Amino acid sequence: MSLLEVRGVRKRFGGVVALDGVDMRIEKGEILGLVGPNGSGKSTLINILSAFYPCDEGSISFDGEDATELTAHRIAALGLARTYQIPRPFDTMTPRENIAVSYMFGHSRHSLAEARKAAQQWLEFTGLEGVADIGIGELTLHQLKFLELARSLATQPSLLLLDEVLAGLNPSEINESVKMIRRIHERGVTILIVEHVVRVVMALSGRLVVLDQGRVISEGEPETVMTDPAVVTAYLGEKRPGA
Amino acid sequence: MTARTRVLTGFVVVGLALFFVPAITETLDLPRFYVIFLFTVFFWIAQASSWNVLTGFSGYFSFGQGAWYGIGVYTVAVLTGKHGWSFMTALPVAGLLALVGGLALGFVVFRVRRLTGEIFALTTLAVAFVLASVARITSAIDGGTGVFMTGTPIPEFLGDFNTAMYRMTLVVMLLTVLAAYLTHDSRLGWGLFSIRDDEPVAGGLGVPVFRYKMTALAMNAFFAGLMGGVWSLQLGFVTIDDVFNIRVPLFVILMSVLGGLTHWMGPVVGALIIYTFSDRLNSAGLTDVNQIIVGALLVILALAVREGIYPRMRQRWVTTLVTLGGVIAVLSIFNLTESLITDFAFAMLATVLVLMIPDRLWARIRGDDGNAGGKPIGDPVGPLAEVDR
Amino acid sequence: MDLVVQGIVTGVLIGGLYALMALGISLSWGALKIINLAHFSFILLSAYVVYQLTVTFEVDPLLMTIVVVPVFFVVGVLIQMFFHWAKVDEFKSLIVTFGIFIILQSGMQTIWSADFRRIGSELNTYASGSLTVGGIPLPIPVLLSFMAASGIAVVMSLVLARTYFGKAVRAVAQDPEMARAYGVDTRRVAVLLSGLSGAFSALAGVFIALGQAIYPGLAVSWFGIVFSVVILGGLGNTVGALTAGVIVGAAAGAATVIWGPLAAPLVTFVILIAALLFRPQGLLTSRSVA
User: Fold this and answer.
1) Does the reported pTM lie above 0.90?
2) Inter-chain contact A93–B193, Cβ cutoff 8 Å?
3) Contacts of residue B304, Cβ cutoff 8 Å, sequence gap at least 6
4) What phi and psi, each to the nearest 5 degrees, are found at residue B229?
5) Per-residue DSSP letters for B158-187?
6) Domain segments of chain A: what residues?
7) B224 pLDDT more than 90
8) What is the pLDDT of residues A180-206, one digit of tens each?
9) B278 in contact with C at a CB cutoff of 8 Å?
10) Domain range spanning residue C19?
11) What is the model's pLDDT at position C285?
12) CATH assignment of the domain containing C279
């Protein structure tokens, strides 16, 4: 049984069809890469999986349970966490408080006192102990992204959805982030990574799923998928006749 | 001693001290007015605190404080004035009815898809007006003629009228502020703060947003209604225009914004300051100017003092005490004013002005380099910050 | 039954006035994301000014339009400049404008007291006149305001759809950043729009002064009506505002006849709540600004 199964998911916004019948599965313990050109529906899919909004048609099952109609906080309770492309920390709280709140409400209930202590481990895991108690406005983008990770980890998820976590980072920060993602994976968290930086996705993912115009057009091992003509066309456009 | 034990002890100490004020006023033959002044302050503290649990903590701006207050006042007025219920039995019903009203509103409005803060604010405004209209039309409630409370007897053990009002408002005020404190220092509180900061993210992290918002709204309504029920006695003759006007919804906003929306002590401080000013302006005969000043204050405060006076008070507590004490001492020793309350008003005005001096300027005046960089933007007085103290 | 019809017809016409009152708020909320509660006191202040000028100088009240409209246009401009300087966002705008509302209300009460003020019939020839259509007497002030409102709604709708200014307004309403990137002077658009809102309120004030007695409490009594019209009509949708005004006016008119004058506010607030909860985007969404 897969950890996450998505069947026939459709979503439209007004006249625009964002997802047009997506079938996908994520196996426990893997790192699945989700790629596709701009507008292919990757973010929409993440939003639906994390119950930001519901899908119009289709079903989602998480860990064997039907998760199609669940609200965001129930999905979180089941063990699903996500990060945001543009970091969204709670800006009237310090990093420590951000993580503590997450721990208090995440996968299982915890008290304030426990949360206060527990936040320390995630601060250390992501290297943020030095900035734990200052204002959010003073953190760099890289630190904010790591805070997103720390916050998601504090909910003790079994599945972590990473939405373009590398966007806006410089090469050395990207390397740091990749190491961090591997360490998270080693702790037993299944990961779905949506990313534009192709070399990273290829290196990290055990398996790749390609979306284009709301549909899955290819899936399988990274090498195979990226050389699939359908995928090349999707990214680069039709080959001109005679070219 | 943990922070919580300290605060709870503080409640007990303050509660006891306040309890004996009427007796002390009598023994020292001080003006009776002090007791009336204080219990009116208690009224406003309760209204502002209850309002803040919803608006300040969760970020859902309510213009509807008048609705819950009104339900509270009218429940007691109608039950005792028209149906002969005893005051003590009617009072809890007032709180409960207001609570039910709040839950009913929450149940409908919090389920609206893509609910924005403005829609919520307008809905609360509209609800208050609707209730006023319904009460005005329904003769069983008011019917436009008002309700007489003057015949309602107060239980004897509470003492004479003013002492009774004092004791009841004191108890309700302490309960309300205690509830606000316990919320602030709890999972519920942190959940509400996260909702305020970013509701979808909070939901995604497992915060039960609907349930928490309902709880905050319910608490707001209950305590507002309960205090309203007590206050009906003070009003004596209850009319729609007197109960459902702009005063309560306006003042609670002003008091909480001044004192600070993010901390449970904010509305307490704000209520004390605003009511003292308002009372002194009234006694100086400046009633219309009163309102203009209130409006102007609201504008200035909303723009200038972001986190409110209370956090600044905590940061600069020495200055606060010195200014307050100093001004009161000077004014009373030299007998410059006719009332201790006026002394207090001036002292608070001076303190507020001093506290409003921006941090950088303040540091320069003091001759040090002020706060070390890295003070949290928001209010760092939650329990997690206490770890470092 | 005849009375009900009369109530509805008069209500429909009064709806024009409601729409005029709502236009200012609708535009500034829809395009500038500012909810200007002070707007209500602008309308009332304009009415008081018309009253005072008419009574003091013994002139035709309708003529006072020439005075108040430009003045309040400027007021609108100044307010918007103030908001820009103070970096007021949607949320703060509620508090800040509430404060301005309170200031203006108490100011008006201090100057004119709580007494009812009405322009006498010698100076206000319009109030006594009425046009009888189909056996129903239609008071002139109400007819005039309806015509003004319809005219303005149609003109504004065309302006928003066809002119550069209109397109700029719509762009700013949807995405100020992008509009700026495309060379739209968002500040100028905002300031002009705010001025227009002020002008519309002033005009509404003229018709109020013509049509009824005024007193400070009037401003608060308009909250329910105006907000129902604004929400029902759709933010920034001028024709929508007119339609909504007519609906609310008719409903309030019918309610008054059937249940008495006290029922009217109840009806309008219930409509407001229903609109807020079930159709906050308004009835005619396709032509909305925002």
Assistant:
1) no
2) yes
3) B356
4) -60, -45
5) G-SHHHHHHHHHHHHHHHHHHHHHHHHTSH
6) 1-79+158-167+189-243, 86-156
7) yes
8) 999 999 999 999 999 887 788 888 899
9) no
10) 2-287
11) 54
12) 1.10.3470
